[in-house]
Specification:
Layout lengths: L1 H14 L27 H14 L6 E2 L1 H17 L10 H8 L3 E10 L4 H9 L2 H7 L6 E8 L7 E10 L3
Parallel strand pairs: 1-3
Antiparallel strand pairs: 2-4, 3-4
Helix pairs in contact: 3-4
Length: 169
């Protein structure tokens, strides 16, 4: 009887091992699909992901900037409303940055479309030499990022990443 009780106790304890006790089905934020109207991109997760990549390449981290967030959102919205992937759809980057109120000494931008998750967009940028160079730009310390869902377009999701260095004046 003691053996059977011990075996039952052991099986009960082992049954919890398969899930680690966590039955959560929540996905990490970088895998959440932006291809739905209620999706919200977490800019802090994006900043952390890009900062880690930069730090692995000997560069400094970036922090979310509210003015650059607005500029990135405006660019993504402009591309989505025109169903067009284009850096200049809402004007040249330097003019858009200035119009946002951010005073930059340096700014670079990645745009893309069709990626549904932050992880996919990041991988696409990392695997493209010009986009990778932007993510690894020296001197930048601030980030703005946006993903705009446009269900009736070719790409469905339009991405904008802006990295910049503020003018210290």
């Amino acid at each position: 009887m003691r053996r059977m009780a011990g075996a039952i106790l052991a099986l009960t304890m082992l049954s919890g091992c398969g899930t680690g006790g966590d039955t959560s089905t929540e996905q990490p934020a970088f895998y959440v699909s932006m291809a739905n109207a209620s999706a919200k991109l977490d800019p802090n997760v994006a900043a952390s992901m890009i900062s880690g990549y930069r730090q692995n390449n000997g560069l400094g981290a970036v922090a979310v900037d509210p003015l650059l967030m607005k500029a990135a959102e405006a660019q993504s919205n402009a591309m989505a409303s025109r169903n067009k992937l284009d850096h200049n759809v809402a004007g040249a980057l330097d003019k858009r940055i200035k119009a946002s109120g951010f005073d930059a000494t340096k700014a670079v931008e990645n745009v893309s479309a069709g990626y549904h998750t932050l992880a996919e967009a990041f991988s696409g940028w990392r695997d493209s030499p010009p986009h990778k160079a932007n993510m690894l730009a020296t001197g930048v310390t601030k980030i703005g990022i946006a993903a705009t869902y446009a269900p009736n377009t070719k790409y469905k999701v339009f991405w904008t990443l802006i990295l910049a260095a503020p003018d210290a004046r």
